[in-house]
Amino acid sequence: MKHHYIKLRISLFLILNIIILNGFSQDVSFSHFMQNPIYYNPAAVGIDQGFLVSLNYRRALMYMPSKFETIAFGADQSLHDAGLKGMGGIGLYVTRNQEGEGNYSTTAIGIPISSRVILTEKLKVQVGITPTFYQKSIDFSQLEFFDQLSPVYGFDASKATLAQLSRTDGLQRINFFDFSIGIFGRYETDPTDQSYVKDDVFDFGFSVQHVPQPNQSFTGVTAKLPSKYSLMLRYSHVLKSYGFDDASIQPVILLEKQSSMRNYITGINFKYKTFNMAGFVRHDQNELLQSTEVLMLIGTEFKLHEKAFSSLQINYSFNLLVRSASVNKNISNEVSLILHLPSLHHPKDPCSFYF
User: Fold this and answer.
1) For residues 296 and 332, is the Cβ–Cβ distance under 8 A?
2) Could you report the per-residue pLDDT of 117-147, keeping only the tens digit for each?
3) Is residue 197 one of the residues assigned to a domain?
4) For the chain, which terminal residue's Cβ has fewer other Cβ atoms within 10 angstroms, N or C?
């Protein structure tokens, strides 16, 4: 009986937060947001020179009896170094997210593209847009509803359910199109079109996802996907004044708002040669609950070809959800692989500027 009540709580959470009109639907948030920038902001595509491939796997809420996992693939090609005036870059990302019981899943395919404007020798700004295709699915037959609970028999699958009454029993799919917009700027004391250089770099970005607020309802009722607003600030400071030319620190702030949900992520990343380590604090809150996560990230980079600026970066993070009056303690894990290769169009000198 206890097992059924656990499944009931998860089922009701999905029903209340995804299917019925409540306005609390929220996108997936990655712990490795610095390693997956095009998912958050289409204007970030092509900000770094070269061809980047990323792969992220996230398993959230490990203590829950159900699975909450996300897989994301991204590709990012710069175009400003190809002699295409006014272009920033073009990319592709695919995300697959599964949450809880009922095989509720979301698949998104986006194609971000950006345009670049050089304001000064040290300051560049990109604007971008991402047309996105979404498919969401849920299997109502795998869910247990409160009207299937009997005081005598416990769970009774033969009883009529809310899903049957709404004529949506079984696997349901919906498809819709969406798009996001954003702006991304970079100030470099030594312009090289790279985020990790031996001089200071300041990045700032703002984006709006789900601009048209598409309908995501599985029933005939309208349930709009709320727009999501994101603001990111990152400052990379090289410690050469302290005698560490190969070391840098990166304070980072990420602010997100979607409907009534507000997320705040603050922390610092430390990089020394090919090793990096970061610590962050994430605070989520909406009208129903508040939660705080502590995140620790470690990673290393393998140089594949020094002259060709090729490398493979591997990162792992551990999230601890701090116990409070509204949430129980839990953990999440995430792994990311970042492959940095030369541009596919064989660019010119990477230290040169092109517009």
Assistant:
1) no
2) 999 989 999 999 999 999 998 877 666 665 6
3) yes
4) N
